[in-house]
Design brief:
- 2 copies of one chain form a homodimer.
- The first copy, chain A, is an alpha+beta fold.
- Chain A folds into 2 domains: 117 residues, 60s Ribosomal Protein L30, Chain: A; 158 residues, PurM-like C-terminal domain (Phosphoribosyl-aminoimidazole Synthetase, Chain A, domain 2, Alpha-Beta Complex), CATH 3.90.650.
- Chain A has 8 helices and 14 strands.
- In chain A, strands 9-11-8-12-10-13-14 form a 7-stranded mixed beta sheet.
- The longest helix of chain A is centred in the N-terminal third of the chain and has 18 residues.
- Chain A is globular, with a radius of gyration of 19 Å.
- The two termini of chain A are 28 Å apart.
- Chains A and B meet through helix 1, strand 1, strand 2, strand 5 and helix 3 of A and helix 1, strand 1, strand 2, strand 5 and helix 3 of B.
Amino acid sequence: MGKRDEERILLAHGGGGILMRELISRVTGKLGDQGGEPLQDSAVLTLGGSTVAFTTDSFVVSPLFFPGGDIGRLAVFGTVNDLAVSGARPLFISLSLILEEGLELEVLERIVDSIASAAGEAGVRVVTGDTKVVENGKADGLFITTTGLGTIVEGEGVSSANARPGDAVIVNGTIGEHGLAILSLREGIEFGAGLKSDTAPLSNLIVPMLEKTSGIHAMRDATRGGLAAVLNEIAADSNACIRIDESRIPVSEAVQTGCELMGYEPLHIANEGKFVTVVDGDHTDEVLSFMRAHPLGVRAVVIGHVEAGPAGHVILETVLGGERVIDIPYGDLLPRIC
Amino acid sequence: MGKRDEERILLAHGGGGILMRELISRVTGKLGDQGGEPLQDSAVLTLGGSTVAFTTDSFVVSPLFFPGGDIGRLAVFGTVNDLAVSGARPLFISLSLILEEGLELEVLERIVDSIASAAGEAGVRVVTGDTKVVENGKADGLFITTTGLGTIVEGEGVSSANARPGDAVIVNGTIGEHGLAILSLREGIEFGAGLKSDTAPLSNLIVPMLEKTSGIHAMRDATRGGLAAVLNEIAADSNACIRIDESRIPVSEAVQTGCELMGYEPLHIANEGKFVTVVDGDHTDEVLSFMRAHPLGVRAVVIGHVEAGPAGHVILETVLGGERVIDIPYGDLLPRIC
């Protein structure tokens, strides 16, 4: 180690915060030269006359199994969710495995079973794959990369750049459960009974919602960096201000306790089954009713709205009546949660 | 370690041999339940009315840089080549990085530069990506997963199941260079001057060849498991026999020396810029001439032909006039060569 820290990759580069964004824009910048557009979570492409969404994610969560799921479910749902929030119906996924020498075959089989069952739940087909093996000590059990393909649901133009003043901001349920469940397991601390990952195939709610309701302008799933990160992305991309009301943000008692104990902010904790919907003010009730009628949206609630300015900012109205700016976290709060 | 070896992942499971096939069919079997078809290197799908090819590969090559290329070039070309041999024009790729904490940013930047330049050479756009970071000691510098999307070139039905008796078997140049170049570097042994990886964007040759020639029945790129593995795959999938002539197989002096020294068979060594084409006997000269006029096919040659039986077998006529069956290697000859 002769190099200074800032010249090396840090764990914090993987956390969904500002450091990760800087790294990605450094990477994206180079690739942009031959593509023209920055790398998105999900790309919308014209392919042989159809409009398709294409997204990829690697999963390195530790441990491999946790309350509410495992790396396999996370990989399938993570990819399916990225497609859904870009307005697409997920159809196909590819599966690439990096296995560490010495991994128990039984563990691999349990995870593959879980992938198969998750794909069934989400209605996608795993159609192509790859397997690599590295020496013991050169990986950590198992890493999964899933890539998803879907077709854009007609009649909608959903983009993080489309939020407009007057829009309502909805979240589909309680936040912070995935990150806190992983943390609780790793640290061996109980934050509350029943705390488990919220990993879920959001497409099962989002696709029919896109087909049957109107006025949806933007959606994002609140994974790494939590609600704070996605609200900031939408505010920045739409050149608008998002104002949210702390008292309305749904947080379970276990997550509240865990965050207080560990000094975290629920808005910064990763979710795997929660997403933000920005909807035209005239269609808020319609979208909210649709969500609440679905098991993945029973606790859906309006947490705020979009204003013209200060553009690019997220402002929280606190329970005490104050205001503060909600930033994207800087580094990594919780490494390897997905 | 309480488990017996056969209950754990071995390095040999990653080698492109029989062990890997067994593992993949174990994995595939479970996923087949909800898809119906076995996982292929490349899936051909109907998506919104278009026929597209979709393929994924993880790259874990060690070391990251080697004569003739690096992990970035390998990742782009490997994915592009899988699309091309399935009869598709590569258009888009996704890029997912797993970085080890402590990796020098300069190394990452060199590899990303290389990815950008390789994508330019192959005429594909990198459109979406992901980045994860794991702790020092939980990966090995950098792993890359690339997933490719392309459109099927019209008018062709290229499949490893389409080889027919009377077809000629062509290889586009000298074999074994990629595997031997990596081995030479790792072991610190010189096998011959100028030995380097043959990694190349085969689509630049294959796509125009598909458009401008006729009679191509099957193609496979000869990566893990080498020429032996892909010939066996075609023989098995087509329920035919492939008979090849040892004296016609193009092998450079450096690869010949290296294989003799290390006790390897050139037919088993991985390539990253060589592919097999099975072509109708009446179109052999046309396809061969087309290949030879392209820089990636200058040394293309007919190495054998397809017969009805013994079905599923690959038979080598040796330089001494004998015959032997060429099997897929059992385990891993050279771990982490891609």
